[in-house]
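Hi Y.,

Following your request, here is the sequence exactly as I used it, all 294 residues.
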Amino acid sequence: MARDKEKRSCGQVVAEWRAFLWDPRTRQFLGRTGSSWGLILLFYLVFYGFLAGLFALTMWVMLQSVDPHVPKYQDRLLTPGLMIRPCTEGLDVTFNVSQSQTWHQYVRALHQFLEPYNDSVQAARNAACAAGRYNEQPDDAVPNYPKRACRFERSQLGPCAGLGPHGDYGYGSGRPCVLVKVNRVINFFPGKNKSINIVCAAKREEDAALLGPMQLFPPNGTIDLMYFPYYGKRVHVNYTQPVVAVQFSNATASGGSHRGVCPPTPHGGAGDKLAAAWPSACASTATEPARSAP
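Below is the corresponding structure, written out as C-alpha cells. Let me know if you'd prefer a different format.
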C-alpha cells in the first residue's frame, strides 16, 4: 500500500516558494543560476534581433521598388469614379424640412467639406488657370518638382455654396443640394480635349416627377480640363478636386426614397468611349412630409 503523503504546513509551503524564488545555498533564482539566465537572455536577444533585422531588410527592399510620388500599379484606376457629399450610409439623404435636427448633420458635413474651397483660401493657395485646356506641368529635368494647382472657388456653386444668409444648402427650404466629387487618379486625361459634364436624371421613371427639375452648378455641370492631370498629393500639394453641385429645385415630399443617377459625359457626346468607361455615382434624396408638433 502506497504511503500517504504527509500534509505540509503553511509555513513549509511558504519556505519552499521562498527557496524557489531565491536559494542562497545554490544561488539560484527561479530555479536557474545567473549563467543559465544569461545564456537564455542572450539566445532570445540574438533570435529576436535576427527576426527584426530580417523584417527591416525585407521592408527596405520593398520600399526601393515603390515610388513615393506615383503608385506602382494603376491598371485598375484608369478612370476616376464619382462620390457625393454629404457622404451617408447607402448614399441616402433623408430629412424632414420642418425638423432641423434631421438635416443639420448634412449642413455641417458640407460646411466642413467646402472650407478649403473658400475663395480667399483658393486665392492664397492656388493659381488662376486658363480654362479649356489641360494644366500640364512637365518636370523640366527636375523630377517631382512641385506642381501648381488651379483654383476651384466655392462661389461657383451658386445657391449650393452655403454662403447665403441661411447657409443651409437648401435643406431648410426643401431644395436640398448634394455635391458630386470626381475622385483623384494620377495622370488621368479625360480625352479629346473636351471638358466633362455631369448630367443628372431620375434613375427610375416613377421618380422623375417626384424628384422634379435639377439645377447644376457650375452651369451645365461642367468640369473643366484645367483640373487635369493630377500629379499626386506629394507633388500637387494644394490640388482641389473639382465638384459639381446638384440642387433638387422642387422635390416632392412623400416619405419615400427617390433615386437619381449622375454619370459624367464628355462634351463629345454619348458615343465617346469615356462615357461608357466611367462608373456612375447614385444619389438619393428623401424628403418626409412636414408634421405638426403634438
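The radius of gyration is 32 Å.

Thanks again,
Q.
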